[in-house]
Design a protein that fits this description.
Blueprint lengths: L9 H4 L6 H16 E7 L5 E6 L2 H4 L2 H14 L6 E5 L4 H13 L6 E4 L12 E2 L9 E8 L3 H12 L6 E7 L4 H7 L3 E7 H12 L1
Subunit structure: Homodimer.
Family: Belongs to the purine/pyrimidine phosphoribosyltransferase family. PyrE subfamily.
Protein name: Orotate phosphoribosyltransferase
Length: 206
Amino acid sequence: MTYPTETLTQSDICAATTDLTTLHHKLLDLFCQLAYQEGDFVLSSGQSSSYYINGKQVTLHPQGALAIGRILLSLLLADIQAVAGLTLGADPIVTAVSVVSAYENRPIPALIIRKEAKGHGTKAYIEGPNLPEGAKVVVLEDVVTTGKSAMKAVERLREAGYTVDTVISLVDRLQGGAEFYQSVGLKFQAVFTIEDIQQRYRELKN
């Protein structure tokens, strides 16, 4: 997919110095321009949907990754020792946050959670630096529907001895994910809701 010319302006290229409020607006526009589609879709949860959000169109976009890294890093409490997520959707997100954290002089490692244990070597579920027992880790996700996907990462991290009490998503589809996390005692935060994206999408079309 080619990137629309309007998403690659000089102001976007300077995203490293853009204030977070402006960056938030730019990221929302990228989701509307690159990731959001309307039609008939079946989600990974098995649910039918009249729209689809391909988050990787933004998380793997150069300006998108930079904006995501800066925005998510700003949401992390000072005592967080790592960010983690379930492969494949979370891979570019945790990487972006970790790289940006180094530039911000607040280095935070990234962990990637496999869906199945590696079939060779250590046969591990978790890839990334080894952390101290009880280390505080935040799970990151691109799009939350039911919440069950990121919960797999939470469970693997806890089994490894880490402390996880927060999930942060780029987009909340408002289809039960937040309520699910609350029911299992997890804090949940989303950068955007589907309502934010759909409203801006309509504005950009007009």
